[in-house]
Every structure is written in C-alpha cells, then in structure tokens.
Predict the structure.
Amino acid sequence: MISRLVDDRARSAIAGSIRSRRVDVRGALFRSLLQSALVLTLLILAVLLVSVFTDSWSQISGRLGDFLSGTLRSRSSDGGLGVHQGIYGSLWIGVIVAVLAFPIGIGAAVYLEEYAPRNRFTSFIEVNIRNLAGVPSVVYGLLGLAILVNGDIFGLDRLTGGRSTLSAGITLAVLVLPIVIITSGEAFRAVPNELREGAYGVGATRWEMIRTQVLPYAAPGILTGTLLSMARAVGEAAPLILVGAVTGRLGDNPALLDLGALADRFTALPIVITSWTQQSGRDVGFAAAAAGAIVVLLVFVLIMNSAAIGLRNRFEKKRG
Amino acid sequence: MTDASLIGAVPPTLETLRISKGRRRREVLVRWTLLLAALVSVVVSALILWSLFREAWTFITGVVWAETWGQSGWFPRRGIYDIPTIVVPTVIVTAIAMVVAGPIGLGAAVYLSEYARAGVRAWVKPVLEILAGIPSVVLGFFALTWIAPNLVGRIGKPALLTVGLGVLGLYAAVAGFFAWSRLKRYRDGSSDSSALIGVVGAAALLAAMGVGYLFWLLSLLGDFAPARAGSLAAAGIGVGLLTIPLVASVSEDAMAAVPEHLREASAGLGARRMATATKVVVPAAISGIVAAFIVATSRAIGETMVVFMAGGAADAARFTDSPFEGGLTMTAAMASLASGTDSVVGEGLTFQSLYFVGLLLFVITLALNVVAARFVDRVREQY
C-alpha cells in the first residue's frame, strides 16, 4: 500500500528535503529578534550601572568618608554634604520592617497554609492578600498619612510622633506584609507531606510538627522572601513622601544607634536621591551627589537581592 | 521493637493518649495568635478603604464639578482640579511603558523558555531578577539624566513616534487577528454569539483608537523641538524598563506551564522551533501572557517615583497631550502635592484631593489586578 502511494518522485523529494541544508531564514531571524530583546535588557542594565557609577565618581572616589558622614545641604559644593541622615532613616526603616512585617507575615502564612480550614472565609483572606500585593505604593503612603501621621483613628500619631522614622517604618512594614505572606506561603507549600505525617505519627501536636519540621524545611524559602521584601522596603520612596519625609533641610543628624530620634522628622536614602535629583536642575553638582547616594543604596539593595537569589537557587538545586 | 517488650507494655487508655494540659493550652494559644496575624491583612484592607473613602467623599461632595472641569490645569493649591490633566499623561506614560516593556519582555521570555540552553538561563534569570530589584528612584534618576538627553533628545520625535506607532500597530494587529479567528470560528458554528459581540466590539474600539492615535500623531509632528529636560516620553521609557522583568517573568512562568508533550508533538509533526513557539506554546500560554501585560499595565499606572522625577512637571501642570512635554500623572500629582511643604496646605479641599486621586488609582489598579488574576487562574485550570 505504501509503495503504491509513495512513487519515485515523492521519495526523491522527501529525501532531498531531509538531506538538504537549506538555512531557515525566517527561523534564524525570529531567533535573533528574541535574542536581541534579551541582549537589550542586559545592555540597559549595564548602561544604567555604568552611567550611575561614572556620575558618582567625584563623590565616591574623592570624599567617600565625608560623603557617608555628611548631611543634607542647600549647595552641592558644601563640604558637609552627605547621606548620613538618609542611612539612619533607611537603616531603622529596615529594622522596623524586620520586627513588624516578618513575624506577622510568616505567622499569617503558617495559619493560612497549616491551620486554616478550606472555607470561604479563608479564601477571602487569600484573595484579599493577593489584591493588597497589587496596591500601588503611594496608596500605602496615604494610609500612613491618615492613620499614623494625622491620627485619624486610634490617635496613633501620639505614639509615632507624626512625621517620623517610626511612621515611615510601620507604613513600609504594612507595604511588604503581603509579599512576605505570599513568599513564605510558597515555601510552606513546598514542604513534602511525608514530613508532616511523620511528625504526627510519632505523636507531635500540630504546632510541634510545624516548629520541628515545616519551619526548618521552609527556612531558606522564607529567608529568600524576607530578604527580597526588605530590599523592596529599603528602596521604596513614594510612601515616604506621603508620610512626610524631609526633602530640604533636616536639622539634627542622629548617630546610627540613637533610638530617641525614631520619633523625630526623618529622611531616607531614596528620598535623598529624589531630592538631589530634582535640585540638579538648578545646581548641577547635585547630580553627582544623587548618583553617589544611588551607589550607596544599590550596594545595600543588590547585596540583599543577590543573597536572596543565590540562597534560593542553591536550595532549589540541592532539593531538585 | 521486639515482641517481648510489647508484652510488658501497658495497653493505651484514654488517659495516656490525652495530651497534657500545658501542651493543649499552648496549641490553642498558638492557633489564635496565628489567626490574629492572618487577620492583620484584612484590617489593613479595611483601613485603606476607610481612609480613602472618607477623605475622597469630602472631596467629591465638596468640589464644584461644573467649575473645575475643563479648567485645563491641575493646580490643587488654588482649587483647580481638572481630572483629564492628570489622567491623560497617565495614559500616555502607561502606553509608552507598554510599548517598551511588552515586546522586550515577551521576546526575552520566549527566548528564555524556548531557545536558551540551561546554562544561559542559569545566569540570565538572576540578572533579570536583579533588574527587577532596582529601586524605582534609581530608574527615575536614570530616566532624567540619561534617557532624556540621550534617547528622547538625540533620537528625536519622528523616530520615537514611528517606533511607538509600529509597536502599537503590532498590538492592534494581534488583537485584530484574534478577532478574525474568533469570527471564523463563529461562522463555522462552534462559538456562541455573545463572544462574537464582545470580540467585534473590542475590534471596533481598537480601530477607533488607532484612527484617533494617527490623527494625534500627525498633530504632534508639527513642531520638532527636542526635549532636554524631563518629559512624559522619558518617564514612560523609564517606567517601561522597570516593568520589563515583570512582563518577562510572568509570561515565562505561563510558557513553562505548557506541558512538554505539546512541544514534542509539534516537533514530531515536523514543525521548526519558530513554528512550535509561535503556533503552539504562545497560544497555549496566551492567558498567562495577557495576565502579564495587564499586571504590567497596573504596575505602570501605579509607578510614582520615575514620573515624579523625570516627568518634567513641578507641583502643578497645564493640560498636555504631547509625550514630549512635561506633565503630571496621577501618582506624580500626589507625590508633588505631598512633598516640599511641611503639611499639605492650600485652598479648602487640597488635602482631600490627594485622597480622591488615591481612590481613583486604587480602583483602577484593583480592577486590572482582579482581571489579571482571572487570566492566571485560567492557565492553572488548563494544565
């Protein structure tokens, strides 16, 4: 039957098309188009990093020590110009985020993954968290402004001192909370059920099972999520502007470990960058200062991000 | 355990099986504490809604709409709140961002998912994640100091407009293609009429938008002054760079979820890689890719710092519909109103206008995210 269908002409055509080395022009074009999209992305990243570093060179190479210990000034040629106040704000915002968002977020994830019954209320909470993760960051700033700064409800402004590092930290903790919950939830879901059943089998209660099996196994995943959300919080600027970060002059310059200044007016590294970038229009020297502050911020953010990514890839490979 | 040891064992009774009081109390305590932690997110949502609605309601009921509409300017400190003045730049910035992020992000995703060797993927994906982690203030600085003079200023209007038109036209062509295939399926009798009405309506809307876009483009080509300072175009490109990793990662996830046997079947039928990618993998993952675009749009609308720094407008703005001028988006209007002064002062409703814009932003992004979540769920259902 086959021999009847495939005559000599068809056979030679098939053999020819198999043996021929025609170049697939369209395919090669398509491939190089896709490749160029990727290369373009990497190129942009490279241009960004190089241009920021070259812009910052006059601040970073010449006077790094002064730059790190200096304060906000009104002229870029001022010898006391620097980012110390910004580092103070960003450092303590990071600490507050770690203290508030991490325990609450991980706790919520434990409840949702390990305890919660599968009912409508639970799925309502889950949908709610997913939607919170997509709310623009300025809206969180409005929340902080209403509740923490103006004290519209509960009179919380007396506790936070109004426009303070404390208000900023709490606002950003609320901002990253959904991210912490979602990433830790994923880490919990990756825990094999055999571990849970094994723990129950030797008589553990639910919490004992979670503490001895689930949490240790999920720890790298949780750490990855918390590092990423910390980097996000430290780099975020829009909510801080709404909460009332100082962009012009900030009087006092507290030491890094001065807890008393937490309820005072504040600034943070992203705010310093914003303010100097905007001032570079009238005073060009501020562009270099802004680039210098970006380098300081990027060092922190990129270390946290690459640690998180490295950690995750290591454990993914290990567990296969 | 041997049999001998079992013989001596006491048989379990209810007493020995019951856990101690302390252990049980701890269980209950832990459970309730964790429930409280989970409820924090609900409280946060409630507080967001409450604070937004309360102040926004004062604004909506207090402002004289007939007077403020059509003032062609956003001057909140003088009591002039023209909504189109901040909505049109938002649309422009978002469109430019999607022109940049859509093709680049999707192209990178298809390459990573269908072409790249494992070794390449292993180092490119972390680099993309690093790009995703770069704070938006850094992109804002970059947009103002590099993109504005080197891309927008040097390449100039005609080239940028041509690229923009090309990419938007491509989007319209893709949408039109889907509408056409739906129409054909309807004529074959395998689709119901309600879907048809939606598709034809969407296609008509796209066509109308395309014609409007063309006329707007022609009106812009008139003057050729290159932008040196910040502009909506520079800000839009900056926002686009920011959303590339988002488009890439969400659509790559969707393509990774396409079962391997579909690719193998396609290869078995003699399809080349390009045909497999464009005719099998992308259509199978289309829900996820659409979700990626919607999420990126939502992110671009909500992005604040890049537009605030590179958008080229101070705290008030006249109406503009040109991407090569400075303008205020909704987010930038909020940031500039809140920054600089110690407290938001001005004519009666200035403070409330902040919350009104916030509510508008919240509703738009929420709607987009809900739609995107539906598309993602559809991918999960299929595979």
User: Anything to note?
Assistant: Chain A has one domain: 78-319.
